[in-house]
């Protein structure tokens, strides 16, 4: 759901949506949501134990950074350039990693439960891709309908996701 919310925010930022652009965003999220459990599955409990101490802080920091940048840009004049491009490789990489860090622990759980990892990550990746692809178009529809201030909402969504991740992990400790 985090990837879907970020995809909606990405769709809000795009002036024009071409299918290949929406597919690029969805592919990043689908691949990372599928690959991270595999990494966790292979890494075993030692590495995940160390990552779990600060993974929520990393996810929160990355999402808050992008969210605050979107909020800042929502107040800029229309003639000013927006520097946050959701199609930029670095931005997509940052967002995909931030929304999929928790999947490392899921992969560890898969190892303990003796889950067929190939089937599980295939389902996760395909569903994330389809939902994210749809979400990009939903975001664009919202931005066309509600104007530039939707970027403000998108930034708040990203910060909210980061806070949700942070609070869930801090309460679980």
Which labels suit this protein?
mainly alpha, single chain, globular, 173 residues
Description:
The chain has about 170 residues and is mainly α. It has one domain (about 1-170). Helices cover about 80% and strands about 0% of the residues. It has helices at about 1-15, 20-50, 55-75, 90-100, 105-115, 115-145, 150-170. The two termini are about 25 Å apart. The model has no long low-confidence stretch (mean pLDDT about 85).
Task: Describe how the helices and strands are arranged.
Elements: H1 2-13, H2 19-51, H3 55-74, H4 89-100, H5 103-113, H6 117-146, H7 150-172
Describe the global form: globular
Largest sheet report: none
Measured between the Cα atoms of the first and last residue, the distance is 23 Å
How much helix is in the residues? over 70%
What is the domain tally? Answer: 1
Element pattern in H and E: HHHHHHH
Structural class: mainly alpha
**Count of alpha/pi helices:** 7
Task: Summarize the entry for a quick read.
The protein is mostly helical and 173 residues long.
């Amino acid at each position: 759901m985090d990837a879907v919310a970020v995809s909606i925010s990405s769709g809000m930022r795009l002036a024009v949506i071409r299918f290949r652009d929406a597919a690029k965003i969805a592919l990043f999220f689908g691949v990372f949501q599928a690959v991270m459990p595999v990494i966790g599955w292979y890494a075993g409990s030692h590495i995940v134990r160390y990552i779990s101490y600060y993974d929520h802080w990393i996810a929160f920091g990355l999402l808050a950074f992008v969210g605050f940048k979107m909020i800042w840009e929502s107040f800029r004049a229309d003639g000013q350039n927006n520097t946050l491009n959701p199609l930029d490789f670095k931005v997509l990489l940052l967002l995909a990693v931030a929304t999929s860090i928790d999947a490392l622990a899921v992969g560890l759980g898969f190892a303990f439960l003796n889950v067929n990892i190939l089937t599980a990550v295939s389902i996760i990746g395909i569903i994330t891709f389809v939902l994210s692809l749809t979400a990009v178009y939903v975001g664009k529809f919202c931005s066309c309908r509600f104007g530039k201030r939707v970027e403000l909402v998108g930034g708040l969504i990203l910060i909210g996701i980061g806070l949700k991740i942070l609070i869930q992990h801090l309460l679980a400790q």
